Amino acid sequence: MPPLRSKPRWLIQTLIALSCVLFAAALAVRMLTPGPARRAEDRELGSGPQVMEPMQFLSRGTRLRVAELDLHVRPELQAEWNAVRSQLFALRGCPRTIDWLDGADGQRCERLLQALRGGNRAEALAGLTLIFQVARASAWTAGLRGDARSAERLGGLLQEWLRTEGIAGTEDPVLSQPTLAAVLLYGRVMRVAWRAPVLGHVEAAQLRARQFLGELCGVTGRRTAIGLALELRFARAMQCFAGQGADGQDDVLLGFDEECELLFPGLRGGCEDA
């Protein structure tokens, strides 16, 4: 029987050192405090750029903060964003909305709005900021200076934004309040379009608004997140829209108009809020 050979000393020392390392690593892992469990939807809602006080970007003082959004716009859109926001915030003279949108600057703005749709939350806010500035700096009110077309074009910009960003925006910590504000302004703008003629109404404008808001809020079926949020914070808008207001079912957008006036006093389409 061959004699047993002893293991080399270096091998024994290596095994002892490795065991010590593994023991220390296991002890360190046990001492770590586990973080809170996060759902996939929590990570999704918490991701993206953080913007403080997002409603300020829709207010009269927007121009004081709008440049903060520069950092969050995609590099390939930076030049266009800077040019359009500079032109729009320098707009004077209160042109009719339809005239400005049909001009070169307005067309450039609409192309940028389309490019910003579906981006990160800050780009969505940037697009809505531009739309609100269009509402402040151009005329879309009814009467001698305006007509239904200007209000309908502005309503179209808001409708496209809400169609893309609205449902998800309601549950986003940055976009939740701006989304509801966009719905209220849309209701006000389309009510102006409906009431634009000196005699009678533009029924097609109200019909279009009713159909869109019905889908957006889930009025005819199960309430959407937007519909529930509006009922909670702006109940008058939903009551009138559902025909439960004292004014009957004809003026279904009246509640949106009234709530918008409380949130944005002076934003009536006459450039008095510019």
Structure description:
- The protein has 274 residues and is mostly helical.
- Helix content is 60%, strand content 0%.
- The protein is globular, with a radius of gyration of 28 Å.
Using only C-alpha atoms, the radius of gyration works out to: 28 Å
Percent range for β-strand residues: under 5%
Major β-sheet profile? none
The SS-based structural class is mainly alpha
Quote the distance from N terminus to C terminus.
Answer: 103 Å
State the helicity in percent bands. Answer: 55-70%
Mean pLDDT: 83
Which stretches of 5+ consecutive residues score pLDDT under 50?
26-46
Task: Pick out its properties.
mainly alpha, 0% strand, single chain, globular, 274 residues
Short account of what is shown:
With 274 residues, the protein is mainly α.
Task: Draw up the topology in text.
Layout: H1 9-31, H2 40-46, H3 75-89, H4 97-102, H5 104-116, H6 121-137, H7 148-170, H8 176-194, H9 203-217, H10 225-233, H11 235-241, H12 254-263
Helix pairs in contact: 3-5, 5-6, 6-7, 7-8, 8-9, 8-12, 10-11, 11-12
